[in-house]
Design goal:
Low-confidence stretches of chain A: none
CATH architecture of the largest domain in chain A: Up-down Bundle
Radius of gyration of chain A: 32 Å
Shape of chain A: elongated
Oligomer: homodimer
Number of domains of chain A: 2
Strand content of chain A: 5-15%
Helix content of chain A: 55-70%
Order of helices and strands of chain A: HHHHHHHHHHHHHHHHHHEHEHEHEHE
Largest interface: A-B, 73 and 73 residues
Structural class of chain A: mainly alpha
Number of strands of chain A: 5
Number of helices of chain A: 22
CATH superfamily of the largest domain in chain A: Amino acid/polyamine transporter I
Largest sheet of chain A: 5 strands, parallel
Mean pLDDT of chain A: 86
């Protein structure tokens, strides 16, 4: 029944040979890799606005200069990644670049930062998308958590089915977004030109600033830097492009960066010069659209396309996280289960882990983008910095043409992102960045411990040094714990006698009178098999049984443990299992952990007896 | 480590022979059996007050007549139970009386009602106790749920240790309660005599009554009937008294009923005639005490003693519920596990079930006594009615001396409680009584289904009709699924060869190249054991393995299934298990449910290989 439900939800299994990826042309590649980057303006603008609002009306005038600063940063980072994709045409994710050039620790730090980022990207994109649509339909505002979780469920199921990020379905929202936003910005610019800039917004300054002005400005800049998230996607995905891969990827990156710049500067500039303000339940981007287009169908279309691209942006995490987890698992840093391609040829465990983490974040942070953002940027900029720093060494090591210039560009990128990382970390530390600062080293530690374990297991299982033929074992002594003489143990006793001449039954007696009866019936049925009655003054079954096994194993000097054969009866329905003492299960668990350090091994034989109803 | 913690919390195991009960003299017996009954005034008074408040100031004048009516009911019920304890000197719980005289269905109905009642008694007593103390210390009021849960935890641990209800610790709160309440009532009466009755409380009548006045009065009466809860305790516990048991128990019952009457009428009368009113966060009983004694240390002592006796009242559930559950389990109506005496000679599963249920009720109903009360009285009065009706038939059947008079008295009791049951059920149906009305038949159904299952299992396991000696089974064919050739499977192969000549290894190949390698290494180590490579185009391990087993079992015409021997490696730490595909576990689960209808049986052998770190 469960497998039936699974088939309806995610479709029938696919054979391994169907596994291959289609190459993308530039138009499709842009749609596949850019949603996260382009959609960042939704939350970056909102955060800059909320940050500056703390300073009051005067503060809002700083939006434009901050926007320019972030755009400059964008240009530097884009240039850096343009170089990265030339240096790593096989796909240079931050983990790979940092690991190859800076060593394992840096690689793990980058990997941890990326894992967290994927998680936060999907959470932030979903909550931000819900906020976009709830700005247009205010009665949805109180239900943001539920709606975000519902969208998460849809995304998860679609990805478990094996949704390809290169699919047309994914490309639509991106071009819808571009084809609505760019005209809106142009039309807004036209109106600004005709109507002239609005008077600066006058808001009563807060009676008491929550921090010095310079700190608040820095803080607004730091939160605005989330506009850069997603810019690294293309350099990770070079092999997915049609040949010439590197050239196509490079051009696509330039186009994407330009689009990001235009969208970001355009929206932030219009907001300031048209004097737009917003109050919850509405985002600043929604207020801008409403100001430019009025509240009609065009405005609704803009909000809908914002939500769609954010949903697709969340989906890029569903492509990236499982893939990174699989790479890490293949390198032995995450549980092996993440490498397993599921029925539908997707890394299903990675998808499920991401979905669980995202859901948890949405619930813990009550679906509020503003609360999630402080956790976000630290990881992004740590990964940027490590990746760029790695590229500096990469060029220096290769010493190819223009290696000095290339190193310098990536070095500039590394320094800029490092400075930003520092600003972000400090200015948002108390608001939540501390969580990320704490989690990344913790993750690095966990990844390392996992690696140590796998290496140790490989060593322990190695056959090296063992002689290729070992002496055969003697037939086992068999001990059968019984709960009484009934139909369920007949086949158990028969099986035991089919594999060994040395069979003993044991009955743990909670009640001496019952033991007498058991003993007599046993004599009738199996007079040739000895039955030992073990008293249990403390009413425990497992304790006296283990003592009996210990004692008899010591008496037999063949150095082997007796095999324990458990007659186990299996109820016809699952709920009936609740009605029986799970003694067989308790015994198995106790035996599993018995005397593990003595080099013995406890063989357990299960002989089931199926109840028919 | 877990067993260490357990020993600290609930103490070391006790041997079975320590199991015996001390007989109680009347003074100790009163303390043991009366807390539930005496403490009922805490919530009964409160409910009557809240109920009448719905009518307004005029309504509060009806408290005294309602109190008189309930006291009359109390006299009738007490008399009925006085007879019951003579009829069932071996302890006539409602379940036993109803089962013996009215048949199994009535018995199960009484049992279900009682199980729910025990649950509700402990929940209501705890929440009401917390309200008593939070009335005196108002800043505790918002934390009622947490405090109630904490008290529940203490009670649970104490009972798991094996707290005797007859202990001195349990007697103290009862006598403290009597020694503070009775003087307070006397002093209040003195003040009433000196000061004269207060003018009737004038409260603005509600603009619109929520229901007709007669309905509201009936409703107040119905909620007030919770004052009678616990009155049946003595008749259940006759064997615990010192001889002459019946005489002592009878006298104790009379004293208890008199005390109940005095406390109830005294407190409700004083409340009305002193014109006491209360508003949350305060109970009416607290307001009365404050009015009579002022807010000083005596008042605090009263509130503390109220809380203590309510805590002890909750504890009576911890004595009654597990015992009833054990009786029902021994009769085959509840899971057998409830009969098991734990390490400390207490019915630990019953205690844990009660604690879980109580905790759930406290959380679901937000620690609010007022919300829980409507669920409460239905079960109590159903049990009363069934028990009294059973006694009528009991006397009629025995035809002893005065059987007609005895029948008549119990008949009067049955009719009165039936009428009350009806009033309670109707007037509080929508407020929550429907839950009980729905749950009791559901419980009856569950108990019956469990009984049917146990009877069916007994039949299926019976050896009757089987010839006492069966033909020995041939040695098994053994199939070893392997995940590769490594140290973990050496002992598995050796063990297999020690019990059978017919051993086959199976490797499910997700990747044909890896399979080639496995096959070659295998040839080196065990050239004489065949290895079968099974391809798996859909990357499933379990599916192809089961198909292989099905196919080979069909090829062998001996009518037996192959034994599956699983080499399983056991990590050194629990967390390491997360890092390995639980393939062995998956295979076991799949085999357990394989072909269950064909009469075959799948024997599974576990050969563990312990990782050292």
């Amino acid at each position: 029944m469960i497998s039936k439900l699974k088939e309806i939800l995610i479709g029938p299994p696919l054979p391994t040979q169907e596994l291959n990826e289609k190459r993308l042309n530039k138009l499709r590649a842009l749609a596949a890799f850019s949603p996260d980057a382009l959609s960042s303006i939704a939350y970056a603008n909102q955060e800059i606005y909320l940050g500056l609002l703390l300073i009051g009306g005067v503060g809002l005038q700083l939006a434009w200069p901050i926007g320019l600063a972030i755009s400059a940063l964008l240009a530097v980072v884009a240039l850096s990644y343009y170089q990265t994709l030339h240096g790593y045409p096989s796909g240079g994710g931050s983990y790979v670049v940092a690991r190859d050039n800076l060593g394992r620790l840096a690689g793990l730090a980058a990997a941890s930062a990326l894992l967290l980022d994927y998680l936060l990207t999907s959470a932030v994109s979903l909550t931000s998308g819900v906020e976009a649509i709830a700005s247009a339909i205010p009665f949805l505002w109180p239900y943001r958590v539920v709606i975000a979780l519902f969208m998460l469920l849809i995304l998860t199921l679609a990805n478990l089915r094996g949704l390809k990020e290169s699919g047309t379905l994914m490309a639509l929202p991106v071009y819808l977004f571009l084809c609505t936003y760019l005209p809106m910005l142009a039309y807004g610019l036209l109106r600004l030109f005709i109507e002239g800039p609005a008077a600066p917004v006058t808001l009563p300054a807060p009676a008491q600033l929550s921090a010095p002005t310079w700190f608040l400005v820095m803080h607004a800049f730091a939160t605005g830097c989330t506009a850069l998230t997603g810019i690294e996607a293309i350099s990770n995905g070079v092999p997915a492009f049609e040949p010439p891969e590197v050239k196509n990827a490079g051009r696509t990156l330039i186009v994407m960066a330009l689009l990001m710049g235009v969208l970001f500067l355009g929206s932030i500039g219009l907001t300031q010069f048209l004097g737009v303000t917003a109050a919850a339940p509405e985002t600043i981007l929604s207020a801008l659209a409403r100001r430019v287009l009025g509240g009609g169908p065009f405005y609704l279309l803009i909000q809908f396309s914002t939500m769609s691209i954010l949903a697709v942006a969340a989906n890029t995490s569903f492509a990236g996280f499982p893939r990174l987890a699989a790479i890490l698992a293949a390198d032995g840093f995450l549980p092996r289960q993440f490498t397993g391609l599921g029925d539908r040829l997707v890394f299903q465990n990675g998808i499920l882990a991401l979905a669980a983490g995202t859901g948890l974040l949405i619930i813990l942070f009550e679906g509020d983008t503003h609360l999630l953002i402080p956790l976000f940027a630290v990881g992004v900029f740590l990964a940027f910095t490590l990746s760029q720093a790695g590229m500096v060494l990469h060029w220096a090591r290769l010493r190819g043409t223009n290696w000095l210039a290339k190193s310098a560009i990536n070095g500039l990128g590394a320094l800029t992102t490092l400075a930003t990382l520092f600003i972000v970390g400090v200015s948002k530390f108390l608001e939540g960045a501390w969580i990320t600062v704490f989690l990344i080293p913790l993750l690095v530690l966990i990844l390392s411990r996992i690696h140590i374990h796998y290496r140790s297991v490989t060593r322990q299982l190695s056959l090296k040094g063992l002689p290729p033929s070992l002496k055969p074992a003697p037939p086992p002594r068999v001990v059968i714990p019984i709960s009484g003489v009934h139909r369920g143990i007949i086949s158990a006793v028969n099986y035991a006698r089919s594999i060994s001449q040395d069979v003993t039954a044991v009955y743990v007696a909670l009640d001496p009178e019952a033991a007498q009866g058991v003993s007599e019936t046993w004599q009738l049925w199996w007079p040739d098999v000895p039955l030992v009655i073990v008293p249990s003054p403390y009413r425990s079954i497992v304790g006296p049984l283990l003592e009996f096994l210990d004692r008899t194993d010591l008496e037999h000097n063949d150095g082997a443990q007796a095999t324990v054969l458990l007659p186990e009866f299996i109820p016809a329905n699952w709920w009936q299992a609740l009605l029986h003492n799970q003694t067989a299960w308790l015994i198995k668990t106790a035996l599993l952990y018995r005397r593990r350090n003595r080099g013995y091994q406890q063989v357990i034989i299960d002989v089931p007896y199926h109840l028919r109803r």
